[in-house]
Amino acid sequence: MNPTITAFALSPDEGQGQARDMRVRWAFEEVDQPYDVRLVSFAEMKDPAHLALHPFGQIPTYEEDDLALFESGAIVFHIAERHPGLLPTDADARARAVGWMFAALNTIEPTILEAEAAEYLEGDKPWYVQRVPLIEARIRTRLGELSARLGDAEWLDGNFSAADLLMVTVLRRLEGSEILREHANLTAYVERATRRPAYQRAFATQLAVFEAASRAV
Length: 217
Ligand code: GTB
Description:
The chain is of the alpha+beta class and 217 residues long. Helices cover 61% and strands 8% of the residues. It has ten helices and four strands. Strands 2-1-3-4 form a four-stranded mixed sheet. The two termini are 32 Å apart. The protein binds S-(P-nitrobenzyl)glutathione.
């Protein structure tokens, strides 16, 4: 049986691949693992059946036989552990790749999410305009450091790995923003990764969900 993941029945990003099922779809495509998708509405995500899979009532989830997982990073790691191609076989290189996976989700992503949460939750508050430059400065600091480390390299540490997959999905949250464009090597890194056939297939499948849902309403 194929693993089954959950994804938005109607993604608020209108199929631009920003929801976190995109990471999982991309990982499946990189390792050539077929998978099924169960689409859920916002209301269904808060149902007891979904909460049993995901304590925070979110997507994505992963189910295979008796195993149920939540957290996109853990799911991508699980896929990368069970299939060749997304993590180096050399133990030290693998440990470094896992370190970069954590860096993507624990060091880079929070700064970007802070900006999104501030706009979404505090955009109408009097302090918002003062907060924005502070948040953007924190993103700029992290991207500057990341850019310096990446330099002219193609990928974060040797061959493309789950670390690049996660890092690029995180950086894509800044697509179209000046902050990402300030670093030519990061912009090229995102473009290089998103040209991968596996990425293109994953993007197309999640976009097709949104297009079908839009036709139905
Ligand atoms: N840390 C968790 C993980 O990585 O899996 C975070 C999961 C998460 O935030 N899931 C979101 C969710 O289910 C969807 S991806 N939200 C519903 C809820 O909390 O009730 C976040 C997301 C949503 C929308 C856009 N967008 O429209 O651009 C981008 C990202």
